[in-house]
Amino acid sequence: MRALEPLLVAAAQVETVAGNLAANLASHRRMIEKAAARGVRLLVFPELSLAGHAAGEHALKLAITRDDRALLELARDCTSLCAVVGFIEEAPGALFYNSVATLHAGRVVHVHRKIALATYGRLDDGKFYGHGERLDQFALPGDPRWRVATPICADLWSPALMHRLARDGATLCAAPVSSAVEAVGTDFDNPRGWDTVLRAHALVYGLPVVFANRVGQEGALHFWGGSRIVGPRGEILAQSESPREELVVASLDYDAVRHARFDLPTVRDARAIDTILAQRAPGNDIVSLS
């Protein structure tokens, strides 16, 4: 069997300027240029990277459509790579979504709208955005073995969503995140929690993850960074150790995904298990001991 070419991926750990689309577009272009120079094929920016973490209340001013000139111009810079960028999407009918667009060769090749809206602690997604209603993925241009899913932040904390993505064939997860230390509550350790969740998804499903979190401060929230690439056995391949802007780069081996899924066949067995669970008759989940 011929050797499988590795895939170079990167997380763009950036500091978003809240509400300043022009400044954020400029910082995205700089990161895209750096990543392209290093041969990166998939570059992931944080959640709402073009707008700001708490931009929802300003959606009427900051929202753009998926065919907006700003996105298309940024896409033209993505000649050799795909870039996953976060934005407030205005959809037909004056509906607003927390979305990410995947850009390549002058086009928007995929859009995911956040499904699990975080509305707890200091998080207010549900006050401003609609729930996404599609859970799909796309084949990486030039290498369709890599089927990329782009769940946004709290989407990754839903076992059902991640199970569905893996079951439906995702072989790579791009994870745009905007996580602040104080976001959930004083008794909740966000950095440790994310480490647990990312490693678990990667290990259980043989699913590499490119985790991009922002840095800096917005209001009373401090964003801790920690962007990383997790391999298909839950191993950390590269990780930021700094609360500053940087490009976190690692090489992924598709053959490692094949071996991980052969050794631990969670994805292979998922459809059969889902079928059994769907056939459970109402009331059969309670066993009488009398």
UniProtKB/TrEMBL annotation:
A Pfam family that the UniProt record links to this protein: CN_hydrolase
Domain CN hydrolase: 7-254
Entry GO MF terms: N-carbamoylputrescine amidase activity
Gene3D superfamilies assigned: Carbon-nitrogen hydrolase
Domain of life from the UniProt record: Bacteria
Matching InterPro entries: Aliph_Amidase/BUP, C-N_Hydrolase, C-N_Hydrolase_sf
Keyword list, A-Z: Hydrolase
One example of a Gene Ontology biological process annotation: putrescine biosynthetic process from arginine
Name of protein: Nitrilase/cyanide hydratase and apolipoprotein N-acyltransferase
Organism: Caballeronia temeraria
